[in-house]
Specification:
- The protein has helices at residues 11-23, 40-44, 63-72, 89-97, 107-114, 116-125, 141-151, 177-192, 249-266, 297-304, 308-316, 321-324, 395-407, 418-426, 428-432, 439-443, and strands at residues 4-7, 27-33, 47-52, 77-79, 101-102, 155-159, 168-171, 197-201, 207-215, 221-233, 236-242, 270-278, 284-290, 333-340, 352-353, 356-358, 365-369, 376-377, 384-392, 410-412.
- By secondary structure, the chain is of the alpha+beta class.
- The chain has 3 domains: 4-103, 3-Layer(aba) Sandwich (Rossmann fold), CATH 3.40.50; 132-201, ATP-grasp fold, A domain (Dna Ligase, domain 1, 2-Layer Sandwich), CATH 3.30.1490.20; 207-443, ATP-grasp fold, B domain (D-amino Acid Aminotransferase, Chain A, domain 1).
- The protein has an 8-stranded antiparallel β-sheet with strand order 13-12-9-10-11-14-19-17, sandwiched between helices.
- Strand 9 (207-215) and strand 10 form a beta hairpin.
- The chain binds adenosine-5'-diphosphate.
- Adenosine-5'-diphosphate (ADP) binds next to strand 12 and strand 13.
- Adenosine-5'-diphosphate is lined by residues 131, 156, 162-166, 200, 202-203, 206, 208, 232, 235, 275, 277, 287-288, 437.
């Protein structure tokens, strides 16, 4: 087992990894930017190293700075969390070259899954259904038009290097295609430094359903059920739950088996998530693989009893899946609300000092956060400030629990998404499990882009 782990991240996920390390009796090193000097991950780690100015590019994304911190503190592994360097194949390679274990999939896998168009083809070849779309990347306007005619409208142009809901353009008719293709390419270049785009049929009212997997280095791979993440704003998730109300046990077993077989064939290791869209007929289509731990992992932890971060660490240290995770025993229902520092209707980020931070507790309630009263939310980073997660014997109990927990969560001084979450949980369609990715557009008075 590892002696000491550096956490190359900040906020709630850095703290979450520190919790797992403490339980495994592994020493921890936090890294932080000048803006995060007073953060809880710095306070609760055994050691902490400042890696640069507030801008992510100068600190959390700066590979030489992170690796230097790891070398100075003599760690044997790095946990990258999510975002930042978590899916960066070059970073994983530099870790390997520096004899530091990267807690995540191999650089080869990160490279493969990081190009969504390539990941699509690979999964299709391994027997997983994908959204009908272009044959490969769409490199010029002429082939965009030809592929558009073949796929049919509406369609969606997507950045192959995409993530975080960026670099996507829905196209409703042939006339709009070339402009949309050009805009998507420009956006992709701006956001990810690569202009490559591909096209998929646009599924009108899909549900977003994803499968969590864990694979070890001995050829074992297991799925831990699904999460439904259909409540989204700007193609980004806001509420997640497990299990999904849209899956029967039979369907879950069939799909889970396909995912497991495909990922075994591809040689996937560590934690990952295969994301799918389910159309109105109940057909499933793979969209992408997230080769890292996800924000919404706690709902799976609460229904399976498996600590996913500890499992990631133990797998990276070479343990068998059976020892690292044990069998999954599905129990009850779990729901997560992402509490963001943002206007609940316009989603404009809201930075500043938190004057009151009062978290709910009690049976079946978990809050993952690095925020506290008097903490300053800086404009430099992601707006997620807390995750409120509940577990109940069934969905009805989980909803009732979430309602009271949302009522008892008080954050003052900045705007948050709490009022929006309260509205979602008061909505009859949500209660009935009638969900699709346009749910919030119907709930909100202003259109959500
Ligand atoms: P990202 O990597 O940016 O998160 P994804 O490919 O995972 O992008 O898609 C994010 C969300 O965008 C999906 O959950 C869904 O709401 C929407 N989306 C993506 N592809 C399609 C599609 N083909 N049809 C309809 N909606 C889509």
């Amino acid at each position: 087992m590892f002696r000491k782990i550096l956490i190359a991240n900040r906020g709630e996920i850095a703290l979450r990894v520190i919790c797992a390390c403490k339980e495994l009796d592994i020493a921890t090193v936090a890294v932080y930017s000048e803006a995060d000097r007073n953060s809880l991950h710095v306070r609760f780690a055994d050691e902490a190293v400042c890696i640069g100015p507030p801008r992510s590019a100068d600190s959390y994304l700066n590979i030489p700075h992170v690796i230097s911190a790891a070398e100075i503190t003599d760690v044997d592994a790095i946990h990258p969390g999510y975002g930042f360097l978590s899916e960066n194949a070059n970073f994983a390679e530099v870790c390997e070259a520096s004899h530091i274990s990267f807690i995540g999939p191999s650089p080869r896998m990160l490279r493969l899954m990081g190009e969504k168009e390539q990941a699509r083809r690979e999964m299709a070849a391994a027997g997983v259904p994908i959204v009908p779309g272009s044959n490969g990347l769409v490199l010029d306007a002429e082939s965009a038009a030809a592929e558009g005619d073949r796929i049919g409208y509406p369609l969606i142009v997507k950045a192959s290097a995409g993530g975080g809901g960026r670099g996507m353009r829905v196209v409703r008719s042939r006339e709009d295609l070339v402009t949309a293709w050009e805009t998507a390419r420009n956006e992709a270049q701006q956001a990810f430094g690569v202009p490559d785009v591909y096209m998929e049929k646009f599924i009108e009212r899909p549900r977003h359903i994803e499968f969590q997997v864990l694979g070890d280095h001995h050829g074992n791979l297991l799925h831990l059920g699904e999460r439904e993440c259909s409540i989204q704003r700007r193609h980004q998730k806001l509420v997640e739950e497990s299990p999904s109300t849209a899956l029967t046990a039979k369907r879950r077993a069939e799909l889970g088996k396909r995912v497991v077989e495909a990922l075994k064939k591809i040689g996937y290791t560590n934690a990952g998530t295969a994301e799918f869209l389910m159309d109105e007929d109940g057909s499933f289509y793979f969209i992408e693989m997230n080769a890292r731990i996800q924000v919404e992992h706690p709902v799976t932890e609460l229904v399976t009893g498996i600590d996913l971060i500890k499992a990631q660490i133990r797998i990276a240290a070479g343990e068998n899946l059976a020892d690292a995770a044990g069998p999954a025993e599905f129990r009850g229902h779990s729901i997560e609300c992402r509490i963001n520092a943002e206007d609940p209707e316009t989603f404009v980020p809201s930075a500043g000092r938190i004057t009151t931070f009062q978290i709910p507790g009690g049976t079946g309630v978990r809050v993952d956060t690095a925020s506290y009263t008097d903490a300053v939310i800086s404009p430099y980073y992601d707006s997620l400030i807390a995750k409120l997660i509940v577990h109940g014997r069934d969905r009805a109990e989980a909803i009732a629990r979430m309602r009271r927990a949302l009522e008892m969560f008080v954050i003052e001084g900045i705007k948050t998404s709490l009022p929006l979450h309260r509205r979602i949980f008061a909505d009859p369609d949500f209660e009935a499990g009638k969900l699709d990715t346009h749910f919030l557009e119907r709930l909100l008075p202003v259109p959500v882009k």
